[in-house]
Specification:
- The chain has 565 residues and is mostly helical.
- Among the domains are: 126 residues, no CATH class; 106 residues, D-Maltodextrin-Binding Protein, domain 2.
- Helix content is 63%, strand content 4%.
- It has a 5-stranded mixed beta sheet.
- Helix 3 runs antiparallel to helix 7 and helix 17 packs across helix 18.
- It starts with a helix and ends in a 10-residue tail after the last strand.
């Protein structure tokens, strides 16, 4: 036996001794590659099974936002003015840039596969990261339970097959928390072992790059990046000798952390002449809320009311994560784990997983971001997916509370302590089955809200398919670009708001610039047709329940430009 202990692989010895851990539960050590591999393989299998189910049932394009994300990525390559100027000024650019290798394929744009591949990869990375993070706080058995709860969440499995941004940001949130925790431990180790300052420098650069990615993914990332910088600056400030050794790396990290917000403000200023266009422009959350709120109507619950906002967001997070009313127990367990972690002083950097909570409470209360779920008035579906940002915290801190309970029970009720983890795994499995049986909330929201939109866009697509191939079409693309997607019409074939040189002239004289015009009630094209109807013949009027009517026109005077020589 002594011989087997002394011949343990040196790589594992070095890994275990590289960074001393905070004292915590017995058996808590960083995960090895061999330990992580089965988790990674399981996540790949889960992701592709979910993909096959969702793709086979046509779920990939239920969300209008998913269709819009795909269209933004597509127009970077396929428009009259291709390039980064087509990124727009509200949604952040990284999700669309990740789709670029796939979006050029017309079929993958039409069926949503161009957005599914990056999301599946992010789901897998998120599962791996959560297990590695959990192993910094928990024994292998409890780390597996926390990871299983996260990986088997039906809402996450569905989102991992779409072009939505949640899988990407969740992966960034988890890995940033993990790297920050490791960096804090490395700083403490470097105080007594100066040669380990290199580990601190490497992690600072990695955190900086990942922070830049998070800032370019969602606005939650801006607050997360600021919180991480404060944590690391505080930690290094308490170790001035280490700070002197890693000053260049910390400077680079700070530069990367600041570069994201500053560059996005500059982008908005350059292309939209307002650095805060994403906050107060025509496509901002505030503008959308103003357009969709009827005159004289009361604002949604939570408007300028942080208490209601907290209630709506935490209830949404519960329903996103747990079946039926068990979300209350889950939230209570996660809060108990939070208190236990703070009291024990173990891996406090993991508190970063709670950053989405204050961000979304503020967004609901003061950022014109309503959340509606069927469990609360007005019993509707809107932005329910935002609760998914709390899933890593609920999974990890809930497991931490149970692991602490098992330690407490061991000397008192040994059998109960041994059975606690298998019972927890059984509850995870039952939770997944229960959520799938009743249709998970995020998927249900997509189904409910897509019914009239998809029918409307399908009707327009049928008209588009009847047009001669290659003729210019005047159409506003910010609302129902899904019709062009369904019909397989290249975006450069349309005159739209992203074409800076042709859009305004086309609105001033629609019949002279386009062979066909699609005017949807209330959009700029319908206003242009009302102001300049000359030379247009109405071909069809398309109306569906819950959507504005679309009118299809043919130009009587359009003369195609001669082909360039």
């Amino acid at each position: 036996m002594a011989r087997s202990r002394t011949t343990r692989p040196r790589s594992l010895v070095r890994r275990a001794q590289a960074v001393p851990e905070d004292p915590g539960l017995p058996g808590v050590t960083p995960a090895t590659r061999e330990e992580t591999f089965p988790v990674a393989l399981a996540s790949v299998l889960l992701g592709f099974v979910s993909f096959l189910v969702c793709f086979g049932r046509g779920y990939l394009l239920l969300y209008g936002d998913a269709v819009a994300h795909l269209a933004i990525a597509r127009r970077i390559l396929d428009s009259r003015n291709p390039g980064l100027a087509q990124l727009g000024g509200v949604w952040l650019p990284l999700p669309h840039l990740l789709m670029l290798p796939f979006i050029g394929n017309m079929q993958w744009w039409q069926n949503g596969l161009a957005g599914a591949w990056p999301s599946l990869a992010c789901y897998i990375l998120g599962v791996i990261g959560l297990y590695r993070l959990a192993r910094r706080m928990l024994t292998p058995a409890w780390a597996f339970a926390a990871t299983a709860f996260y990986a088997l969440n039906p809402n996450l499995l569905y989102l991992a097959t779409t072009a939505m941004t949640e899988p990407l940001f969740l992966a960034e949130l988890i890995w940033l928390t993990l790297l920050t925790l490791e960096c804090v431990a490395a700083v403490r180790a470097a105080v007594t072992h100066p040669e380990r300052a290199g580990a601190v420098a490497r992690r600072l650069v990695g955190i900086g790059l990942l922070t830049l990615g998070a800032v370019y993914t969602r606005y939650d990332g801006w607050i997360l990046g600021a919180a991480i910088w404060c944590v690391l600056a505080w930690q290094l400030g308490r170790a001035p000798a280490v700070l002197r050794r890693v000053a260049p790396a910390f400077g680079l990290y700070t530069l990367l952390a600041v570069a994201g917000p500053v560059s996005w403000l500059a982008y908005n200023q350059h292309f939209f002449h307002d650095p805060l266009d994403f906050m107060r422009g025509p496509y901002s959350a505030a503008a959308i809320d103003k357009r969709t709120t009827p005159p004289g109507a009361h604002h949604y619950r939570g408007w300028h009311n942080p208490a209601w906002a907290l209630l709506f967001y935490t209830r949404t997070a519960q329903v996103d994560a747990a079946f039926w009313e068990t979300g209350f127990v889950l939230m209570a367990g996660a809060l108990a784990g939070l208190v236990l972690l703070v009291r024990q002083g173990v891996a406090r950097a993991a508190l970063l997983l709670w950053v989405p909570l204050p961000f979304y409470v503020y967004s609901v209360a003061y950022g014109s971001v309503p959340i509606f779920i069927p469990q609360l008035y007005p019993h509707s579906y809107y932005n329910a997916r935002y609760g998914m940002e709390m899933l890593p915290a609920l999974a990890l801190f809930g497991a931490f509370a149970l692991a602490g309970l098992a330690v407490w029970l061991t000397p008192r009720q040994p059998l109960a302590a041994k059975l606690l983890q298998p019972v927890a795994l059984l509850v995870v499995a039952l939770n997944t089955v229960g959520m799938m049986y009743t249709v998970p909330l995020v998927l249900k929201e997509g189904m409910v809200n897509s019914t009239t939109r998809m029918a409307f866009e399908t009707a327009i697509a049928h008209e588009l398919e009847s047009f001669p191939q290659g003729v210019p079409i005047l159409m506003y693309n910010s609302e129902h670009v899904g019709a062009l997607q369904q019909a397989g019409i290249p975006l450069h074939q349309t005159l739209n708001e992203g074409d800076y040189t042709t859009w305004k002239p086309a609105l001033d004289a629609p019949a002279q610039h386009a062979a066909y015009v699609i005017a949807i009630a209330g959009d700029p094209v319908s206003q242009a047709v009302a102001a300049h109807p000359e030379g247009l013949t109405e071909l069809a009027v398309l109306c569906t329940t819950g959507q504005p009517c679309a009118r299809v026109y043919q130009s009587n005077v359009f003369v195609p430009s001669p082909p360039a020589r």
